[in-house]
Input
Amino acid sequence: MKYHIISLGCQMNLSDTERVRTVMHQMGFVSTEQESEADILGIIACSVRQKAIDKVYSRIALWNKMKHKKSLLTFVSGCILPADRDKFLQLFDLVFPMSELPELPEMIQQYGIVTPASIFRNAMDELPLPATKAVEQQSVLKPVALAKEPQTGIKLNPAAGIDEFWHVEPTYTSDFEAFIPIQNGCDKFCTFCAVPYTRGREVSRPSVEILDELKQLVDKGFKSITLLGQNVNSYGLDKKGEEIGFPELLRMIGEYGNATQNDFWVYFTSPHPRDMTDEVIEVIAQYPVLAKQVHLPVQSGDDAVLLRMNRKHAMDKYRHIVNTIRTLIPEATLFTDIIVGFTGETEDQFENTRKAMEEFKYNMAYIAQYSVRPGAASSRWADDVPKETKKARYHALTDELMKHSLKYNKSLIGKQLRVLVRGRDRKAGYLSALTEGKLVVRFAADNQNLIGHFVDVKIKSASPLSLEAEQILL
Output
């Protein structure tokens, strides 16, 4: 029996998907890339952007049509706003918060869909499931009706039970790149954001578990590890006196990096400017294993817009952080997130954002055109910036990004860099890699065994978002 999962949105959803895969495999299901072959179809959803939610509705419409030809079960989890969840209950067979992932075998069993009995029994014994009534096992799929009412067990607090979820070992999709969730949820309540409503308040994972998982990954040969959280630099603040803070967590990772013979880079995403301290930057500068790349969302370069966004910081604070990074880690690349066309944004306010891009000279910016998310505070306000204006502002910032990115990339021509090879490039006969600063590099090579390993290259040419190099052979 087979399953197929679609993951939408951020790296946290990708990390969650790896744990979903583990549970599916423990039940004896096998992954398939073909939806038509699957007996179970699932989506790890993202309510942060309307486009991602539109993809969910499009997919489930197709899947429900498939039910006329075969018996299958559908589920959705991930970041789901209450309004979306209510609609999904009418469309999917199973709707559950990610914190209830350990209970998925029971949910599937109650629908009459089981794996081969011996595998299923073993999986049920290994997973931390609540006591349940005996359910008659069947060797074939039963037709599954669409859920018409909220199912029992759906918690109002989506973060409840997150500790059990973290205990599910991921099924990694890469042999050299991995994610480690260190925190779940957010307490910032930015007015444009749905995360506090989809993932709940901030909960920090025990640092012992984080360090153990990291050491296991390094021992297995993983080269790139990313610490994940909605607001990573507030790590530990929810457990003051019981847990270390984010700078100390990074320091412990750095000390382990110094002590081990293994070679790897550690990243983190995403920090919030309000909680970004000089100490975090000092620790990154001190330890070689902590990658010299910082993703620091700015969202807007205008103080009045930041106030409406409830970002809880002004541009002076953000500017101090960037200046500290440039001073202590001059080699670091800087990435950001920006929203254009936020409700009420004027031309002058947008111009301040463009000036911020000119000042900070980002290596990469993920620019989004504002879209209303039901449940977020800004959904109560008029979405009064026309789509045409949002699109024009998006293109203006993209042009600004390309200008500064190209200038920086050209400055690397002739330099020797260390890169992590990630796979084949679209250009025939080339491999694709990332620098420590997460800049894309392609170089001519026929040796596929280089994938997943560090190599040295010399930069030969540059474009706005990528570099071309030649491998340095020793």
About this structure: Residues 114-156 have pLDDT under 50 and may be disordered.
